[in-house]
Amino acid sequence: MHPSLVVAALVLPLALAAPASSRLPGTFVRRQLNDTCGLSAVQQPPSTLTPPDAHNQLVLIALGRGTQNYTCADEASVPASIGAVANLFNASCDVAEATSLGAVSEDANAIGQHFFVDATTPEFDIIGLGNAQVKKVENAAAPQAGNIPWLKLDAKDQSTAVRNVYRLNTKGGVAPTTCAGQAPGSVVQVAYEAQYWVYASPDAMAARRRKRSLGLPLN
Ligand SMILES: *[C@@H]1O[C@H](CO)[C@@H](O)[C@H](O)[C@H]1NC(C)=O
Ligand SMILES: *[C@@H]1O[C@H](CO)[C@@H](O)[C@H](O)[C@H]1NC(C)=O
Ligand SMILES: *[C@@H]1O[C@H](CO)[C@@H](O)[C@H](O)[C@H]1NC(C)=O
Known about the structure:
Oligomer: single chain
Protein name: Malate dehydrogenase
Signal peptide: 1-17
InterPro entries: DUF3455
Keywords: Signal
Order of helices and strands: EEEHEEEEEEH
Structural class: mainly beta
Bound molecules: 2-acetamido-2-deoxy-beta-D-glucopyranose
Number of domains: 1
Mean pLDDT: 83
Helix content: under 10%
Organism: Bimuria novae-zelandiae CBS 107.79
């Protein structure tokens, strides 16, 4: 039987939305990829997650906006995670320049996609950084209830320059507590937002730049 689709909380309440940027249109300044808006000085919000290897460099803070998907085997079960789908926006400058680390701009630029290749393998396809598959290595409860956990994700291999991705400052995305009222096999989609802090190997970034300048194929 074809699984029915149950759409829950597809639109985040406006009250949860981040405040609009105070930056005026037309004042946008392009900066160097290797130190976007002074990202080297930006610190993660405090958490119990292990910090990235000091050798790796923060190269992007992406705003992810999409849905966490869960499935219900039957009404007596609890919803099980089957992945997520999100659009990624370049929010590096917004976070670097914001007074609050939680602030993200509505005008952030589209920069890629986040999705799952199977139930446990997240992938990040990011323009300029390649297509990186990652695995979850740590999680930490979000500081405020009602938001999905913060995560440390490590690259599954070294086919791209990306080495770690942290999911931080999450909003929403939490599964319903039970499957009561859900059809067997249904997919429950819950809207969420998160910041994905992307760390890369400077050596691998330099190798990418060399390859690009030679016109060689990049992942
Ligand atoms: C994000 O945007 C800033 C500002 O335009 C830019 O300098 C930076 O290269 C972008 N990041 C990536 C990974 O493209
Ligand atoms: C970062 O960018 C600056 C300005 O273009 C450049 O001088 C510097 O060599 C770059 N550093 C690295 C590690 O690529
Ligand atoms: C998850 O939900 C998205 C819509 O947000 C949908 O496009 C995607 O196919 C769903 N994935 C699964 C595995 O159900």
